[in-house]
Amino acid sequence: MPEDSITHIDFNELNKRAISQPLVKHIYTADPSAHVFNGKIYIYPSHDIDAGDAFDDLGSHFAMEDYHVLSMNHPSDTEATDNGIALHVNDVAWAEKQMWAPDATEKNGKYYLYFPAKDYNGIFRIGVAVSDSPVGPFTPQQQAINNSFSIDPAVFKDDDGSYYIYFGGIWGGQLQRWRTGSFNAEQPESPFAFLPADNEPALTAKVARLTNDLLEFAETPKDVVILDEHENPLLQGDNNRRFFEASWLHKYNGKYYFSYSTGDTHFLCYAIGDNPYGPFTYAGRILEPVVGWTSHHSIVQFNNKWYLFYHDSSLSKGVTHLRCVKATELMHDENGFIQTIQPYK
Ligand code: FUB
To answer: Which of 90, 249, 256, 270 has a CA positioned 20 to 30 A from the CA of residue 154?
Structure first.
């Protein structure tokens, strides 16, 4: 059972050891998806609030209602600009609540915000909203993306101009309820029902190419399979390495790096493949656990350097659902492996 807050840490001392500080402090933010548009950094985070909802393993306490886009001139800036509300749940016809981790992309001067939210049946879907500006406001489509499900969309544009959407999350993210191809609504209070057994292949994130207008899936989503060192799929019981949520895809030296959170073991890990669909081979950890239960990130290149955007719960002194986004440099070694980052010295 995760803790809803942390009382045994000296946060003054922790903040001194932290390798980076919150990029904004006037609101709580999480799940930062960073991109470079027109030479500037834009961060698409969740906007955490304390709505007073019960704390549970389904994540009901993550009751976010809107998105703010943050911007920075350079990823090493110590503060980001908050560009105000970019999209509110009240403006999304199909969505009722829980605006979780978003992402964005750009095509032909238009900006596309992808976001998960629960519909009026309590089912997570993924929506898309469009703007002429990277900071919004974004105009949502009337319906969620056809056949979309679960959470944490991340969009990757490949060098040939194709766009791919990665998504999914287990427990409160509902991925395990879709194993038969339709939503299993039984045992609604259980985040663990319908998970594979520990000795079965782990549930995977999903990937689909997007249509040319970036508004729909161009194909049935495929499994993002992560293989171990023996080329076997990671098992569900391999909690230190298997996929939980927070997909991200970046390309480095022609290889595709799929990164993700292991959820209940709190690591950000990655796996390397030869194409956007994988399979990907597990390659290691990117970030050791942060203060707070969740870990979620993005990886972006700016000029010749790479940066990890991530979050922790230091600003709220350890409240699980009140997080703050941060950034730090990320290094690939001479063999292309990512050097593991310790968030506190
Ligand atoms: O912010 C709500 C959820 O927490 C995200 O969708 C997950 O990735 C986790 O960070």
So the answer is: 90
